[in-house]
Amino acid sequence: MLQLTPSENEVIQLKALGFIEKEIADQRCVSINTVKAQVKSSIRKLRVRTGYQAVAKYVATHPDRFKHMIVTLFMAIQSIVMFNDYREDYRRPAKQKTYRVYRANGRRKN
User: Fold this and answer.
1) Residue 6 and residue 88: Cα distance in Å, rounded?
2) CA distances, 3 to each of 7, 8, 90 (Å)
3) Cα–Cα dist 57/55, whole Å
4) CB 32 within 8 A of CB 25
5) What is the mean pLDDT of each run of 10 residues along the chain (110 residues)?
6) What angle do CA 8, 73, 20 make, to 5 degrees?
7) pTM to 2 decimals?
């Protein structure tokens, strides 16, 4: 595994903290294309396929910096498993069942 440069290291650390590339570019006073290039370079150096995997590998290799995040994530997973909430998808509202209305003479009303 190749060593990350200080700028790549900072970009991956900010992505691990939840910043998006535009926010990272604004914070570091660089172009968004520079941030994207640094993410691609760190993906290549860490030998992973996606930015998410690069962040996960960075967090796994630097647990002291992200101890609070790891504990929070563990507690969230534990509560999901304990209360069996993993079957629901909270990102989308549930589909409401629609009922057809019929006219008095038997035809459907659209």
Assistant:
1) 41
2) 12, 10, 39
3) 5
4) yes
5) 85 89 94 95 92 86 76 73 60 61 58
6) 35
7) 0.59
